[in-house]
Amino acid sequence: MARLGEFTVPSLKSFDIAKHITRGRIREDFDRRGRRVRVFALPWTKVAPTGEDVYWSKQDGMTDPSDALDNHFRVNNPPMNIHLFSWRHPSGWRPLTRSAFTKRLDTIAISLHLPKMHYHGLRIGSVLEYLLREVPFDAVKSMGRWSSNSFALYLREHAVVLAPYIQASSAMEEFTRLTIIPPVR
């Protein structure tokens, strides 16, 4: 649920180690049961100029970010002090720019006969995905690092998100007694 600008740079020459993520700012943490979590220590974000952490863990299937990151390290192996998503170019290391990233996604969408993406939709889609997995609203809010209920504005498919909560015998009964669902706007 990170913002696109937190993991890309605006231009090839705009990398700033004080503002942009590097390979050296990744660490691993473990919960009490030994489940691994990767932590990206972002040095700066638009809402946290002193930086904040973004967490993620291995997922099932071909969209696993852990496998993708490990593959990036095998293929590109960027040094610890340059942009995390850099690759070798004949003129030196190149950081991943927002325009290169979005251009690549556009190429993939076209090849799959999908409509062109709106890139804020990546953040919106992650909210929907986790809510459809029945992750509690307050957990989604925390995962996206929202300080208000503004993330509720991203809810586009209210019926499918709310279905588990409104059944006659809800699988979420105990959860709904403990949590307040943010209002629809």
**Mean pLDDT metric:** 87
Number of domains: 2
Structural class based on helices, strands and sheet pairing: alpha+beta
The side-by-side strand order for the widest beta sheet comes to: 1-2-3
As a whole number of angstroms, the C-alpha radius of gyration is 19 Å
Low-confidence runs: none
Main sheet characteristics: 3 strands, antiparallel
H/E topology pattern: EEEHEEHHHHH
Strand content: 5-15%
H/I helix tally: 6
Number of strands: 5
Helix content: 25-40%
Distance between the termini: 20 Å
Shape: globular
Can you offer a commentary on this structure?
By secondary structure, the chain is of the alpha+beta class. The protein folds into 2 domains: 93 residues, no CATH class; 58 residues. Helix content is 30%, strand content 14%. The strands form 2 sheets. It has a 3-stranded antiparallel β-sheet with strand order 1-2-3, with no helix packed on it. It is globular and about 65 Å long. It starts with 25 loop residues before the first strand and ends in a 7-residue tail after the last helix.
Summarize the SSE layout with pairings.
Blueprint: E1 26-30, E2 36-42, E3 52-56, H1 65-75, E4 86-89, E5 92-95, H2 98-111, H3 121-132, H4 137-143, H5 158-162, H6 173-178
